[in-house]
Amino acid sequence: MRVKRYVLPVGLMAMAAIAAFGPFHNRDTADAKGVSDKVNHIVETVAGDTKTAVFAGGCFWSEEAPFEKLDGVVSVITGYTGGHTNDPTYEKVSTGTTGHLEAIQVRYDPKRISYNQLLQVFWRNTDPTDAEGQFADRGNEYRSVIFYNGEEQQTAAKASKSELSAQVKFEQPLVTKILPASAFYPAEDVHQDFYRTHPADYKYNDVASGREAFLKRVWGDDQEVKGMESPFSRMNKDERLKSLTKLQFAVTQQDQDEPPFQNAYWNNTEEGIYVDIVSGEPLFSSKDQFDAGTGWASFTRPLEPDSVDYREVGGFYSDEIQVRSHYADSFLGHVFEDGPAPTGLRYCTNSASLRFIPKDELAKSGYEKYVKLF
């Protein structure tokens, strides 16, 4: 019995029902893979010199969250890999007949986080002794596997597994397989960023499956990999929100767009960087700003590849890709593929989501690393 299918949250089931209601809704599962491809293309365009890592560790909802928050991780996509069909879906993979596993694809900047650090996060969020599934999720699709890209990752994965085995943290031998990476298929839209879009259901799934209790018992205070936390993740968001104006709150928290040509930065020509109005995390640079003629601040790329997240939003006439700050989850605006070189992208951004820091104030404001840009 595949427990996950029986404990699928009511909210998720309702969302799926709404998505199937009619042809007007563009976020149904049939279109989700195409939308994910669009996001993948955008991420690859702005990511620069990044690499990918693929891990399978049971329910991909729970595997995605620990990697999303890591400094140096550009994106995490849930999906299916390791199978023998070309069109896996959640329903097909759940039958256990396609050979696919639920997995995550992690795109990361090797200059900021190492593959070995990613391996440490993987081990701390799976049961490597279970060959038949993970926790309450049973079946081939829930096995734990490290899919390596190239000899370097293969060597690192084997060494990491040997080191963990020598620590004798587990009573049973480690059975996690280390296999070459194969085609990766993004999961349906409803399964992306599940921990953000359905926090209560995500937490319930972690607790009910036994995953949370197991990991706490095995790893205790050592479950969190040290030295990766960003200072922007420690903000008190509730307190920060109290200082926002009515417009800033409506934009960042309620996904509202401000009026064009009537905002602070649509025609700003001063040099400096833009940070999130809530958390202060750096988002854009004036060096990448251009006049798109729309009346909103426009940029060709984010300041740091992992400073923004993307969320697919379906409308009656088209699919749009929202841009949101990574730690505060503030709504910033949208990204379009009609911008100038070098990226061909246009990040159409609300000034109400941003705070501008002139180049002469960067050092005293805590953003000294960006002084060299100017």
From TrEMBL:
Residues making up the signal peptide according to the UniProt record: 1-19
Residues covered by the MsrB domain: 237-359
Catalytic activity: L-methionyl-[protein] + [thioredoxin]-disulfide + H2O = L-methionyl-(S)-S-oxide-[protein] + [thioredoxin]-dithiol; L-methionyl-[protein] + [thioredoxin]-disulfide + H2O = L-methionyl-(R)-S-oxide-[protein] + [thioredoxin]-dithiol; [thioredoxin]-disulfide + L-methionine + H2O = L-methionine (S)-S-oxide + [thioredoxin]-dithiol
EC numbers, comma separated: 1.8.4.11
GO terms of molecular function: L-methionine:thioredoxin-disulfide S-oxidoreductase activity; peptide-methionine (R)-S-oxide reductase activity; peptide-methionine (S)-S-oxide reductase activity
Class in the EC hierarchy, top level: oxidoreductase
Keywords: Multifunctional enzyme, Oxidoreductase, Signal
Coiled coil residues, start to end: none
Classification via InterPro entries: Met_Sox_Rdtase_MsrA_dom (IPR002569), Met_Sox_Rdtase_MsrA_sf (IPR036509), Met_Sox_Rdtase_MsrB_dom (IPR002579), Mss4-like_sf (IPR011057)
Catalytic residues of the enzyme: 59
Pfam families hit by this protein: PMSR, SelR
Described purpose of this protein according to its UniProt entry: Has an important function as a repair enzyme for proteins that have been inactivated by oxidation. Catalyzes the reversible oxidation-reduction of methionine sulfoxide in proteins to methionine.
NCBIfam families, A to Z: msrA, peptide-methionine (R)-S-oxide reductase MsrB
Family affiliation: Belongs to the MsrA Met sulfoxide reductase family.
Protein name: Peptide methionine sulfoxide reductase MsrA
Organism: Paenibacillus taihuensis
Gene behind the chain: msrA
